[in-house]
Every structure is written in structure tokens, then in C-alpha cells.
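Quick check before the chapter quiz. The format below is the same one you will see on the exam, so make sure you can read both the input and the output lines.
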Amino acid sequence: MFRRLAATSLAIAAACVGAPATATAASRHDIAAARTVLTTGYETLRAVVRSWPKVEASLRNLNHRFARECPGIGAGSPQTVAEKHLSYEVAGAQWATAYHADAAIVRRFIHKVTGVSTSDRRLNRRVYKFLAGLDEMLALQVPDICSDVRAWTASGYQRVPTSTLQFDRHVEAIDVAIPSPKLAEPYLVASDRALVPKLEHLITRFEELEFTTGQRYWNDLLETLAIPQ
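Here is the expected output.
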């Protein structure tokens, strides 16, 4: 679930470039495109990791907001399949919050990569689908979870609000999947290949931060709202 936490999967778009069997067989255009996306991805992910305290602060503020507006609003909620929609909505609120915290980093990445393409149309479509997903995550707003949980409670825990279901479907449909940087290797010359293990190291570090931070604040938010996990 937390592999998609905001602010973040953006830099790995570098991995979306790839195609010919060897770098020597690739055109200069393709090699330049791979270098641009790979280096931009590396710079972006490094900025994301460095900004992690800002992401954590934004999630703490979200928890403080719920603590002010509707603490314990879900007390008594049963742990059911239907209730899972509400806990997932909370996770979506985390993603929106994190992306907003690093919005400047995400927008800079989108700006630098937009217009970059390879000779492989299929791969280009995948890259731009990813960029579109980033745009959608930037536009994603934190839902009115307090109102949604109130409606859930008022129904006697029988009906999940339509707004919750719509939000969950929308978030689930956003494509910010993380490809492997090694997909770019067929386009890379020797000097560019040295960046791949460095990017992989950053990815590992990011994933560690993403998982531990996401899990911790998801638990905190659910506890504040008194929603079962």
C-alpha cells in the first residue's frame, strides 16, 4: 500500500526509458533521452530523500488536524470489509499530503522530463502515463474524512459513503508504479551506467523511508480517528 506514498515515486521515472539491445546500437537521440531522464530521476529522488523531514512534518500536521477536528470519530466501528474503504481513504489522504509537501520537486521533475522521448512509442506512452499519474497525485486533495466517518457511523456502519468509494477508486487508478532503473541500461553509454547503482541505492533508501513512515503515520491517523486497521 505504502509503495505509492506521495512525494516520491516520481524520481524513478528514469527507469521508464529502454529499448535497443546495446547503447552502441541506439541513436544519439535515444542515448541523450536516457541520460536526461536518468540524471533527472537521480537528482529528483535525492531531493526527495533529503526533504523527508518535511514529508514527515506534513503527516504530523495531518494527524494534528484530525485530532482537532474529529478525534475518535470512528469509535465503535466494526472491522469489516466495508470499513476497509475508510482505512484506505486515510492512506489516500497520506499520499495526497506527502505529494503536496514535495510538490515543487515533483513539478520540477515533470517539467524536465516532459518532451523527452525515445524512438520506442510504446515506452514513450508508458513514460507519459507515469507523468500523467504524477500530475493526478499533485491534484489529489485530502478528502473530508471526518464527514465520511460521521456518515458511516450514522448509517449504523452499514453504508460506506459514496465519496469514500469514489476517492478510493480514483486513488487506486492513478498509475505511479516504480519501474527498475535497469530498463534504461540498453540506452546508456559507460559514463552513464555508473549512475544506475547510485540510483538503485537511493531507491532502496526511499523504499525504507516510505514503508516505515507510511506504516507509522497510518497507524497514528487510524488511532486518532478510532478507525480499525
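If your answer matched, good. The chain has nine helices and no strands.
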